[in-house]
Specification:
Two copies of one chain form a homodimer. The first copy, chain A, has ten helices and 14 strands. Chain A has helices at residues 3-10, 28-42, 45-48, 82-95, 116-133, 188-197, 214-223, 237-249, 264-273, 295-303, and strands at residues 54-57, 62-70, 76-77, 80-81, 100-111, 137-145, 153-163, 179-182, 229-231, 252-256, 287-290, 312-318, 325-328, 334-336.
């Protein structure tokens, strides 16, 4: 945390009261809320324009756009909160296109009665996250719904970024023989949320891994411009994401159970809860697929970045018209890694 | 409605069932919902890319970004629904910068138990609105919250557009002597919602004016490139919007009550309900401010466009360091046009 960040965090005014319907009514109360909470902390030249939208300037290169709504419960969790998450989620979706995220929009749907002090904490956290990622929130919106018609606060963000001509990253680019790499341990976010929600006490507190990955992606592309696929294994975890890519690319995948990094405490929590860490959401990890010739270079680049220290090659892409993802288990058998069929962890992001 | 639009509207499949938590879980159920409801109707080359974001291509010119969340209740109302409104709201915010809207993102927060058939109706309406506005929905997200933690469906949209170098439109550009023009009748949207919500029966059904204004804005800029301010009087109505502009530009305004176009049935409903039509929301009207020399040309251009037939000059900008908006009343007196202080019409957009 820089000195400026610390000042910002300390600058939480002692806001009292709670969100009421007038804060969504387009009148003076809404204008004051926007000025005293949103613009105060998110302050930048774009918001200062004060119009219905933001004038961003020109960019050269191809544009990329990604959107995410965030309905996570609880709003504050070990390692983060909905404010930071709503920045990271969308910054990462833009970064997974191989693009450099430039701007974010943020729309808040607030429930009547939600404490303004908590709202301000969330906005401060969002502001910090945006500055740490280097991606300003340039425009937004606030709406209020009656008590019992929402749940505290929901935040929808959209990101716009720019993609260099050399980059061609898509879930449909995986080819047989390619290496599958993950940037770190799987399942931290989901288990952090679940333990908070269910009031589970583990010896070691498990923190969400929520973080922006645009800097890691930039380092990876600098090392291996020909990365074929990038995707962050959020809802549905590694299983869902690998299956998505396998379907898009019409290939199979074989991964090794022992090759997938999982923190011991997360593995223990999963065992206790009857969960498969491969199905558990992450918010600060990515999957990369590249040609086998590039794998060592890419892995080295990832491991030399603070957000990729635990990066590992977990398997390879194979030819398979049925697009099956299979796993060599710890005991040497093979099993299909399927998408979760039902609901495992609601409102995880 | 074109033949293709009619086909699309008729193509509503007989979807049964309702949204459940698996539709937000990142697994197979979510993938199927996205394919069978969202991609089916919103279909375009961007969505077909199938990645976490959309690759948009390059644009020359300055970019503009605007965001809106939509929490309107009821979801279906005379003259529109939340699907169309969520396109119009953001297309119009981009257009009010003087920009040409190019792309939209759309994020859905759905309540468990919401009928899938109604969701599909909303998506079909959104698709129609997007095609009519010429602005595709290129990326999005779906989340599900438990029954009682939301209210049917909320939709957040963000729009990106491009602005020509010649255009300089901002709420801070109004100058004393400028003319204030509205594009049509005030209050239609708010009264349509309220009459539906309160089960009021008027002799003539009052329809929401929800519509995209990007074509009207293009015609206006072609006639008068030097338009100084554009803004759509949504929440808080004409009063709030004029006050916003007055504050931004540090000017006063004087408008004439008899000059503001209001449909007789809307005026009657307002009288019955004790509402001031100047405070009631619009979703398909705009305010334009231009130099007095340009006013006649701009008015003529607006009146020759189908969405500006009832356009009228309603007043002028004056020097006033207190940024007061005042109105010459029907009876010849003067009164201050203030922002609404409290909540008049919750969840109007």
């Amino acid at each position: 945390m820089t000195a400026a960040d610390a000042k910002l965090a300390a600058d939480l005014s002692r806001v009292r009261g709670s969100v009421d319907m007038t804060h969504g009514a387009g009148g003076r109360a809404m204008a004051e809320l926007i000025r005293d909470v949103f613009h105060k902390h998110l302050a930048n030249d774009y918001l200062a324009q004060g119009n219905d939208g933001a004038l961003l300037g020109s960019v050269s290169g191809r544009l990329v756009m990604a959107a995410d709504s965030h309905v996570i419960s609880p709003l504050f969790f070990p390692g983060g909160d909905i404010g930071a998450l709503s920045v990271h989620g969308t910054v990462n979706d833009v970064a997974m296109m191989g693009a450099r995220p430039l701007w974010l929009s943020a729309s808040f749907i607030m429930e009547e009665g939600f404490p303004l002090a908590e709202l301000e904490k969330i906005v401060v956290s969002m502001a910090l996250a945006a500055r740490q990622a280097g991606v300003p929130v340039v425009t937004g919106d606030t709406k209020v719904v009656e008590k019992g018609k929402g749940d505290g606060v929901f935040i929808s963000t959209t990101g716009v970024g720019v993609l260099s001509e050399a980059t061609d990253i898509s879930g449909s680019n995986a080819r047989p023989g390619d290496a599958i790499i993950v940037s770190g341990t799987m399942g931290d976010h989901g288990i952090a949320i679940l333990s908070k929600r269910e009031h589970l006490d583990f010896e070691t507190e498990i923190l969400s891994d929520t973080q922006p990955l645009n800097d890691l992606v930039a380092a990876m592309l600098a090392a291996v411009p020909g990365i074929r696929v990038l995707r962050d294994p959020t809802r549905g975890g590694l299983s869902a994401t690998l299956n998505e890519i396998a379907h898009q690319s019409k290939v199979g995948m074989v991964i090794g159970e022992t090759a997938v990094p999982v923190k011991p405490e997360v593995a223990a929590a999963c065992e206790l809860l009857g969960l498969d860490p491969l199905n558990v959401a992450n918010e600060g990890k990515l999957i990369a697929i590249c040609g086998s010739d590039d794998a060592a270079t890419l892995l080295a680049a990832m491991r030399s970045h603070p957000k990729g220290l635990d990066a590992a090659i977990i398997g390879e892409v194979v030819a398979d018209e049925h697009a099956l993802v299979t796993m060599r288990t710890r005991l040497g058998g093979m099993r299909v890694v399927d998408w979760i069929a039902g609901e495992q962890l609601p409102r995880i992001c």
